[in-house]
Records
---
Amino acid sequence: MLALFTMAKEKSVYSCQSCGYQSPKWMGKCPDCQGWNTLVEEKKLEILETRTFHEESLSPIPITKLSTQETFRTSTKIKEFDRVLGGGLVEGALVLVGGDPGIGKSTLILQALDAVAKQNIPVLYISGEESLDQTKLRAERLHAGSDSLYLLSETLLEKSIQEIKKLKPKVLAIDSVQTLYTSELDSAPGSIGQVREVVARLLYLAKREKITTFVIGHVTKEGAIAGPRVLEHMVDTVLYFEGDGGKSYRILRAVKNRFGSTNEIGVFEMSERGLEGVENPSELFLSERPLNAPGSVVVASVEGTRPMLVELQALVTPTTLALPRRTTMGVDHNRVSLLVAVLEKRADLALYNHDIYVNVVGGLKMQEPGVDVGIVVSVASSFLNKALDPQSLFLGEVGLTGEIRAINHIEIRAKEAARLGFKHCYLPKSNLKKLKSKIPIEFLGVSTVDELIRLIF
Ligand code: TYD
Ligand code: MG
């Protein structure tokens, strides 16, 4: 209550433009994110606290009195997109889509909206970034066009809301949240206060009018959607587009999802007709793999329910530096340092006077410990200058004493490898004992790094 009273009295608030921290007085340094000169004065709106989403839920109801309805989902007809959303669009859900400029956010949303419109569902795409002509041109490239797909070029929130209420679309897209602004605040479009207020109002609208709403957001230099903490708390789903600048494929990842799993990813390839789903990403990621090259190894990671085979490369070269270089891309730097130390101590490889580079091919990020054995093997392979059998897969987590520890989802990883013609799978001995299914691949259980290195080289 106290907070509400004080808020009502104050006219303005200072918000940090990089993390959303708020203070009643100006400060040179944000105490939350430590940024300098990031606090900007913004007018405080008090209506936020009085908003409710549903008229009926005014008093508490016993949970047993509530009827459950199966959430109805509308398909976007893009299998990979549906998968990330948890099975399609949910009525009234607010989905935030973030990613670097040019990665394909507008393309994907327009494609999805068009597919929905083709099912005779009215949809509205509001662009504050591009003119109607530009959007139309893009739509033509994508072969999109349906009588139920409406376009609007607008940056004023109040005007947009008026049009939304008039048209009553079932699905709405805002491209982008940083270009929309409300006339009730005098701060610039894209500032924390504006972004927060715009999303709050859209959320209110989405819930009350039951409109599935996509909000496209630009990312900051650090890779987060501007106003990250505030926005991520408010919305139902947060999706991020990742990808390697030069490459044509993109990965859509759910960071938060109230209507599905957050582990699922969607893999797309950008073509001249827009984004196309890639159903078998392993083939794509292994397509350029050099065979019989030292340092190259194949590992399998599991994203949600889907296994993905990925090539990992290491390059180990003698150094003249006092402090040898350890460069990693796609895997954790500290993890690699730790594994190199394990190799030195437990497998007697003299790596201390060598530079080591480790890279996940294709710009993918692999965070799970199941790739430890792959890293160890690729570093050893490059160091010894001995290539690995290209039909072998390496799985397992490595501990500090050099033991190889069990990982989960062994069977789906091995199945994917067998499907792609792999013949051997090195895995933790403890996993081997529990393995039941018949997969046409030879399983070789190992219990220490030392044993593994001696076995394969
Ligand atoms: P876009 O969706 O505009 O990215 P964002 O909204 O995230 O900024 O995607 C732009 C890029 O995609 C641009 O470089 C052109 C490319 N592109 C294609 O290769 N094929 C296509 O059919 C379309 C529409 C875009
Ligand atoms: Mg765009």
---
Amino acid sequence: MHPCVRFEAKFVSTELMAAAEEASSQARSMLTAIRAGTCTGSEWTGWFDYPARAGWAALEPVEDFVRKNDTFFDLVVVVGIGGSYAGARAVSEALAHSYIHGLPRSSQVPVVFAGHNLSEAGLLELMDLCDRRQPMVNVISKSGTTTEPGVAFRIFRAYLEKRFGAREASRRIVVTTDANKGALRALARDKSYRAFDIPDDIGGRFSVLTPVGALPLALAGYDVRAMMSGAESVFSDLKSDAAVSYACARKAAWDAGKRIEVTNISDPKLSAFLEWWKQLFGESEGKKGLGLYPAGFLSSTDLHSMGQYLQDGPRNMMETFLVFDQPVAQGSVQRRLAIPSQSGNADELGYLEGRHVEDLNVAVTQASQLAHADGDVPVYEIRLPRLDEHHLGALFAFHETACAISALLLGVNPFDQPGVEDYKKNLFALLGKPGYEAPGAILRKRLSGN
Ligand code: PA5
């Protein structure tokens, strides 16, 4: 049987292959150190083997809450930013009907997201949607102090209290935050909101399998058990080495002067997954002047724009295609769409009659792999059997493991994010939060060399 997540160097020079092979024994030692909890940043390795260690147990209260909830809702609003929202968005956008809002109700409840920007228009428009629905709001923040979700939650809390009254509003709000500390935990206690814990030893971008991702997805009707079992299958079978091979390929590419990794998807349903992936690698590796810049590429859309750059711009990138053998993820029935036959051949597409659109999409992937390889871009592929909760869970575990190894190979701590903290402090200062240094103080210190 094939392992669930396969990694393959499709069109890669023998030099890069040899360099990746050379990195593999060090990468395996990194994996052992992650497993043993002895790597750099080991206090943040609770995500590794999470299903077996804590995940299945943590799912029980989540499922119990969903089962016993007797407040009707037909919209899940997730308020969060970064690792506190990206995983739930990746799964719900990959698996929901793209036009769910315009269709009759199904077993899946639409999930929408707030608190990951400060667009006033966006918040107003989301409240327009809420006016037509019965929303349940899940606010997620580990620190409980991040400005964007804090502001959005204050707005949604006021909205719910005005519309439903304080009592019902408190049943429509669920909090996911640090088990003990932070403003959100205090508020949850004060208002008797139902609250779920984010484990101490798991940072935001590694938290999708915890209640951070599991709760909103379970509320919306996704199979979070399948997601957990997909992740478990990867953590319990790292012998297959796909994550190690991917990390080694990235390290070899970096050492050979590559500075960008482009992940190529061929279905917009995976766009939010790409955002999750970008955050994971960008925030984990981009330190001390190191780290491949993680960029996304959506085929065929970007083939007609950025494709030129990939083909012929600076040769400083590697490209990884994310491919599902069965990418049509709508319910249990495998629907297909064939090119219809027509009288005449004015559009010159008669030769495609009867072929499925997805088969053409597979040809697009092959055509771009060949073209980009021709253009001297090393081409890799991550392949899974099917787009569903199980395989997305497997992909999360695969990427988390590969990312941690990859960052450790570069010599950076995968689990901190000092740059993000700089921005957060500057924003507090600019907005006048009491107790924060004047805006730009960090920059001024750096320029003056102090
Ligand atoms: O990965 C991380 O730690 C960050 O991206 C955080 O998830 C993000 O900054 C949000 O932080 P918080 O959950 O504390 O609001």
